Amino acid sequence: MVKSAIVLDDLDRRILRALQQDGRLAVTALAEQVGLSATPCLRRIRRMEEAGVIARYTAVVDPARVGLPIQAFVQVALSSHAEDVAAAFHRSLEARREVIAAYAMSGGMDYMLHVVAADFDAYAEFALKALLRMPGVKETRSSFVLMALKPPGAVPV
Question: Which of 15, 98, 104, 144 is deepest in the core (most CB within 10 A)?
Answer without folding.
Answer: 15
